[in-house]
Write a structure and sequence with these properties.
The protein is an all-alpha fold and 910 residues long. The protein contains 36 helices and 5 strands. Strand 1, helix 2 and strand 2 form a beta-alpha-beta unit. One of its GO terms (cellular component) is plasma membrane.
Length: 910
């Protein structure tokens, strides 16, 4: 009998937990135990009412179970989505559209989650004893967690059914005769009387001037676990993998060549994984969603396409490195071999690229950890780079590569989770489309009311547009930024010219007519296009001038270099495109109160994740971001150590240095650089410089070095003087254009005035264009006619010939690879930057069908990229995995072909 009762209790716990629509707990979720309810439905009948999900198949099944076992008819039922259910929700102290939990409404109050489960169990005779005991001994936090785990996966188990709000057999047990469409509840929420709200913003955010508002959804302890605990864990794992690689697949010694080039034997899959990992900055995860929040669907596309073509085209340089300087170690070493006098110039821009990339990593990471966990930004700014020191110092580049694969795999797992959550589990492409159109349709007056301190769903009582003194309403008005007393003037303009702080209403420069004016659902976006140009120039600088990409090309096997870069670029495209098209568009669609400052600091993804998935979403984004940061951070650290070792220490301090000297200097530089980057990021944070600002600025400073570096390996006519003059003239021109444009537009010469799209665009374009023009013009006057022989004379410090097989480096093999990557690289770049946008332009404002097709591409690209980048490195490295496994366990896990070869060899020897 006891066993039967326990089974019944277990069933009941899963039953009632299932009475819950698949809606995540909010980060400001109401926690009710006994909220008084003035309920006309209890006037003549005091039996408690169970509010359940009327369209959940599992929920309705267990409603039938409760009906069958409630012989005393102790409870009544009502669908959460019905008119009566919505009224009861509001009278219980909850939003009428909040169907995130089963609710038990009693005469004394309302109960949710595990409390509701136990209270229902206590009212059924068969489960009363165990329910009473369970409520007494099981902590509420544990019970609620178990409830959420079952409820959140309910639709995946049994799916949906037609809405049920009554029952022919037990009609007297059900309340409500109208089922409200759930999608309408989301796009057009109403109060209990059915009056539509002005906005579809979730009611819990009414009157909020920011999403996080200084309240971290995770504890500070969580921040320490993520930054320190995971840093240590990933270090131990990477060190173990590197130890096994060195011990069983190499001689057992870490040479300088292996430390800084990974033995030049990295295969296609791992090369692609490393490229993806190195190119996945904090900005990739955070800034991409910011531009989606700002510009709509064009933002993720221009971020992805504008930063993919550089990786594709760098594949050309990867083959040229194998052809012309196979023994090189760094970009600057190659430049010095051809243009000795340009050594200092490109060393400067190389260091600049590393510092800019590392600063963005730390700024984005520290801001996110601070918002999610409450850890102080300065503490996070130092702990993040310090966490990459141990394994980078131990194994060098190969350790970084192995860790990068692990990081990339985790990033793609979280990516798929977010795509599924938004477009399958919680919403759909149709629903996101509807909400984006509604966000666009709000007028300036609507937005002023919505983002006011006392907004009640319909208006802001304190907001009076006819007030004699407009300054009187400013404390209650959150929509616009008030700076130096100029808010009064800019608000009087029509439309207002002052800075809008929230995504509400249309986007200036986006296509659309009438209510769709400034639509988020269009590729015709002036601001999106301007960002795209800035993105292209800036990322050419951070790829072509960043030693980490040269190091990856040097480390790759000759046959894998071009394929690795091509595959890496196409896979990486999925991260900003798919992630931002999910999280970034969802933020605007749901109309979360994410402020412009929060978005600029990269907090759009964590805000959406926390809103949809609660603390679990915050953990997922924090882990994903930390993986990106330490992966790219380790690559930047080893890149800087290589520049210092080969381009400062060796030529200027110890020309006769040995490989051991290089390894020692590299291991000294890594911790020093990590600590220095923490100091730099702290300084930028202190003066108010955020991730988005640095991202727009980077092309102005380093875009000028792109063309000379490209021509260093591809054009024999470019001279040393042309390269130096082109780099410095482009840099100066970029800064001048940046400052002059800001001044001409009347913007102040501060971080805000210099951070506009117009001034950043002018600086970026002038930097790269002037550089190329000057470099070519001066070289044409006195061309060099270089034969590339001095590049091939770059010496090895250790007699490590790995990856230098003459057959693999022969022109017969490399020339076809070069021709292939040229055709594919330039062809795909044309498709991504010209053909695709051109074909999307006639669509104007996307229809629901066109947007569904767009999202289909988003999901498919993300899925196939995940499969390739996680699976291919394992398949390619299976022989090494087999060797290590056999050495450790004696079990041969090689592929069938490997086993056949071993068998044939044994037979031949016998």
């Amino acid at each position: 009998m006891a066993s039967s009762s326990m089974l019944r209790l277990a069933s009941l716990l899963s039953i009632v937990a299932a009475l819950h629509l698949s809606r995540p707990p909010q980060h400001r979720a109401t926690r009710l135990r006994a909220v008084p309810v003035a309920d006309p439905f209890a006037a003549t009948d005091t039996r408690p009412i169970v509010l359940y999900d009327g369209v959940c198949r599992m929920c309705n099944f267990w409603v039938d179970w409760v009906l069958a076992n409630d012989r005393e008819k102790a409870v009544r039922f009502c669908a959460l989505q019905s008119d009566v259910g919505r009224a009861l929700l509001e009278r219980s102290g909850r939003r009428p559209d909040d169907i995130s939990s089963i609710v038990l409404v009693t005469a004394d109050g309302a109960h949710v989650k595990s409390d509701a489960v136990f209270e229902i169990g206590r009212r059924l005779r068969v489960t009363t004893p165990l329910s009473t005991l369970g409520q007494a001994v099981i902590p509420k936090a544990v019970a609620d967690a178990a409830y959420d785990a079952i409820a959140d996966n309910r639709y995946n188990i049994a799916g949906k059914r037609p809405p049920r709000f009554t029952d022919a057999k037990d009609a007297d047990r059900f309340l409500g005769d109208t089922m409200v469409n759930w999608e309408t509840c989301v796009t057009d929420p109403t109060d209990s009387s059915g009056t539509p709200y002005l906005t579809h913003m979730p009611r819990e955010y009414f009157g909020e001037d920011s999403f996080f508002g200084g309240k971290a959804p995770l504890s500070q302890a969580s921040g320490w676990i993520i930054v320190v605990g995971m840093g240590v864990g990933m270090t131990l794992l990477a060190v173990l993998l590197t130890y096994l690689e060195v011990t069983f697949n190499r001689s057992g010694k870490v040479s300088s060549e292996f430390f800084n080039t990974a033995g030049r034997s990295v295969k296609t899959g791992l090369t692609a994984s490393v490229i993806v990992s190195q190119w996945t900055w904090a900005a990739t995860l955070l800034q991409s969603s910011n531009v989606a929040w700002n510009f709509g669907v064009s933002g993720p596309f221009w971020y992805a396409s504008g930063a993919t073509i550089q990786v594709l085209l760098f594949g050309i340089l990867a083959i040229e490195i194998k052809r012309k300087c196979p023994t090189a170690h760094t970009m600057v070493e190659i430049v010095r071999a051809r243009w000795p006098g340009a050594h200092y110039t490109f060393l400067f821009f190389g260091f600049s690229a590393n510092l800019i990339v590392t600063s963005m990593l730390i700024l984005g990471g520290a801001a996110t950890i601070n918002a999610l966990c409450g850890m102080h930004t300065i503490v996070a700014s130092f702990l993040i780079p310090i966490s990459v020191i141990p394994y980078t110092m131990y194994g060098g580049l190969k350790s970084t590569f192995l860790a990068s694969y692990i990081h990339t795999s985790i990033i793609f797992v979280v990516l798929l989770m977010m795509i599924y959550t938004i477009y399958v589990s919680k919403f759909s492409s149709d629903l996101i489309w509807e909400m984006l159109k509604k966000t666009t349709s709000y007028s300036v007056s609507d937005c002023k009311h919505i983002f006011s301190e006392d907004f009640d769903g319909f208006s802001s009582p304190s907001f009076n547009p006819d007030a004699a003194d407009p300054a009187d309403i400013f404390p209650e008005l959150f929509l616009y930024a008030e700076e130096d007393g100029d808010l009064t003037d800019c608000l009087e303009d029509d439309p207002p010219t002052c800075t809008k702080l929230f995504a509400c209403g249309g986007v200036d420069g986006n296509a659309g007519v009438d209510a769709d004016s400034g639509s988020y659902l269009t590729m015709i976006s002036l601001q999106g296009l301007m960002f795209g140009v800035i993105n292209i120039v800036g990322n050419f600088g951070t790829v072509f001038c960043d030693q980490s990409y040269w190091q990856s090309a040097i480390a790759a096997k000759p046959a894998a270099a071009h394929k690795g870069y091509m595959l890496g670029g196409m896979v990486w495209f999925a991260i900003p495109f798919s992630l931002a098209s999910s999280l970034g568009l969802a933020a605007t669609a749901i109309q979360l109160p994410i402020s412009k400052e929060e978005a600029g600091n990269g907090l759009v993804p964590p805000a959406v994740a926390v809103h949809l998935l609660g603390a679990g979403g915050g953990w997922a984004i924090a882990i994903m971001l930390f993986m990106a940061i330490i992966s790219t951070g380790s690559a930047e650290a080893i890149a800087v150590s290589s520049l210092v070792s080969y381009d400062v220490y060796k030529p200027f301090f110890n020309p006769a240095c040995t490989g051991e000297d290089i390894v020692r200097i590299s291991r000294i530089v890594i911790p020093l650089y990590c600590c220095f980057s923490g100091v730099l990021a702290t300084c930028l944070w202190y003066i108010g410089i955020g991730l988005g600002w640095v991202y727009g600025f980077m092309g102005i400073h380093i875009g000028c070095a792109v063309v000379p570096v490209w021509w260093c390996l591809t054009n024999p006519l470019i001279s040393e003087k042309g390269a130096i003059a082109g780099a410095w003239s482009g840099c100066v021109a970029g800064y001048v254009a940046w400052l002059v444009t800001a001044t001409a537009l009347g913007d102040p010469l501060d971080k805000d005035g210099l951070g506009t799209l117009e001034s950043m665009l002018a600086g970026n374009v002038c930097s790269i264009v002037v550089s190329g023009m000057v470099c070519y013009a001066i070289s044409a006057m006195n061309p060099q006619n270089y034969d590339f022989k001095s590049m091939k004379a770059i010496e090895l410090l250790d007699n490590d010939q790995s990856g230098l097989d003459p057959d693999e480096l022969s022109e017969a093999k490399l020339l076809p690879a070069l021709n292939w990557i040229k055709k594919f690289g330039w062809g795909v770049s044309f498709v991504l930057c010209v053909l695709w946008p051109a074909l999307s332009t006639p669509a104007g404002t996307f229809s629901k069908t066109y947007f569904s097709f767009w999202i289909f591409i988003v999901i498919a690209w993300g899925f196939f990229a995940s499969v390739v980048i996680i699976g291919l490195p394992i398949v390619e490295s299976w022989e090494d995995i087999s060797t290590i496994t056999k050495a450790l366990t004696g079990v041969n896990v090689g592929l069938p072909e490997t086993n056949l070869h071993e068998k044939a060899a044994k037979e031949e020897s016998a």
